[in-house]
Structure formats: structure tokens, C-alpha cells
Amino acid sequence: MSVPNIIVVAGSSGAGKTTWVCQQMRDIADVEQIIYFSPGTGTVPIDQSRITTEFPGIQVFSDGQEVEFLNQIPKAEAVYIELGFYLQLEAIAQILDNLTYRAIAVLPPDFKDSEYHSWANEIVRGAPTQSSTAETLWRAASNGQVIDENSLEEFWYEITHGAYGIVTRAKGIFDVNDGRSLYCDFVAGVAHTDFLELDLPRYLEGRPQRFSGLEVVGENLDEATLRQTLSDCCLSDVAILQYQQQVKEILLEGEKV
Questions:
Q1: Contact in structure between 105 and 124 (CB atoms under 8 Å)
Q2: What is the pLDDT of residues 178-194, one digit of tens each?
Q3: What secondary structure letter does DSSP report for 235?
Q4: What average pLDDT does this structure show over 81-104?
């Protein structure tokens, strides 16, 4: 049995770890057995959900699936493991035991002499992020919730303009009122990008039965207000059904044209 190519990717928050992994996956699109694992994301697997959507043929594993992941390694041709900035680099030894892997660190251009430099086999130049040692991480799952898109845009503007603390990184997946699932991404110091619509069918039958959630990294985060504002953006059952009925009528009219 051939030994799979195991790549472990680590680096600072927002530097572009997931972006780098996705590019590698596109480059080896002809490889049949690819698996991806990102430990430590708990109930807010934003990157796993994004990768599952973009690469439906890839096996993606989250927390609680470590045994299944390890069992699939011998069957895979390529294995990608992404370590969040909040995990110790030594954690990978516990996950992989004695398996050989290649260590890749994705770091900002001015990031020097860090633990990543001594750990990695290769340093990849990432985005010029503005991270600090005082950062904290806040997460919230919002499965089953639907957000009015205008409210989401206002909320995202507040997040990225200091209303809840000094935010250096924010990302999320949200179901909006017209049935689409949107991926939102912000890195302080990096040019703004619009919301990305995920390649998923519109959900127009009640509350969505798929993942949604938010992750924010920064200093002096007002977590209570973040949570309350996110809750305030969510629509009631009645409003969801009204929006969904309107969208279905619009789509039906479009089919008749």
C-alpha cells in the first residue's frame, strides 16, 4: 500500500491557510482520494463547510471524527490537516502519532523568527495580517436561523468597523431570507471582498437544515453584544415563511417568462 502525501498547514489568523489548501486541492483535481481535517473547530466548522461545498468529492472531517479520519488515511492519496492559530503545534503529533508529514506554515510577509519558522518544512507567504498575542476567539453556531440580508450587511459592517472591539479576523456562513447560503470573510489590512454565495440549493422550506455560524478574532471583544446582535438579526418563523413564499413566487414567474 502506498504512503499518502500528508500535508499539515498552520499559521497566524487570517494569513490564508484555508485559501492555500483550497488552491492545492484545485491543482490536484485529478487525484481521486483526498481527505481534509481541521481539529478544534467544535460546533462552528466554517472552513469544513466551505470546502465541502466547493469540493463535493473530498472527504471532510470535523471534531469527533478523529477515528474515522485516521482510518481513512491509508486509503487516501492526499491528506490535508489545517491547524488553527489557537492550537499548539505539538497537537499534530497526538493526532498523527508516528506518521510522516510535510509541515507548511502560511505567514504574513513581516512575520519573523516565530515557532512556525522552526517547525515548518516550508514557509508560504500569506496575507499581511495584523494579529497580536492579545487576541481572543469567539464563535457562535446559528444552525436553523435565517438572517435578513440587509441586516447581515449592517451587522458585518459593525463587526469590521470596531463596534464590538478590535476585530482582526471574522468569517461566517449565513442563510439569508431568499434561501441562499452566504460565506462572509474579513481580514484586517486586506482588501475587502464581497460576500460569496455558496454553491448550495436555495432553502425555501422552513428553517434550514444545514450549518451556519460566525467566528470572530480580535481584542477586547464585546461577546455578549455580538451574540445579542446576531440573535436580533434572525427572522421569526412567520417572517421566514413569508420571504420563502415570495421567493418561490418570483422564481415561478421567472420560469414562465
A1: yes
A2: 999 999 999 998 877 67
A3: P
A4: 91
Pair 213, 143: CB distance under 8 Å:
yes
Distance, in Å, from the CA atom of 27 to the CA atom of 133, rounded to the nearest integer, reads 34
Q: Tell me if 120 sits within 8 A of 8, measured CB to CB.
A: no
CA distances from 147 to 2, 191, 204, 239, 240 (A): 47, 25, 13, 10, 9
Q: What pLDDT is attached to residue 48?
A: 96
At residue 191, the pLDDT reads 75
Could you state, in order of their start, the residue ranges of all structural domains in the chain? 5-125, 136-246
What is d(CA 227, CA 141) in angstroms, rounded to the nearest whole number? 10
The pairing of strands 102-107 and 5-11 is parallel
Assigned fold of 5-125: Rossmann fold (3.40.50)
Residue 1 pLDDT grade (very low, low, confident, very high; cuts 50, 70, 90): very low
Cα dist from 248 to 6, 131, 244, whole Å: 45, 44, 6
CB 187 within 8 A of CB 129: yes
Q: What pLDDT is attached to residue 91?
A: 86
Give, for 140, the enclosing helix (H) or strand (E): strand 136-141
CATH number, domain 136-246: 3.30.1220.10
Cα separation of 226 and 163, whole Å? 9
- Give the tens place of pLDDT for each residue, 57-77: 999 999 999 999 999 999 999
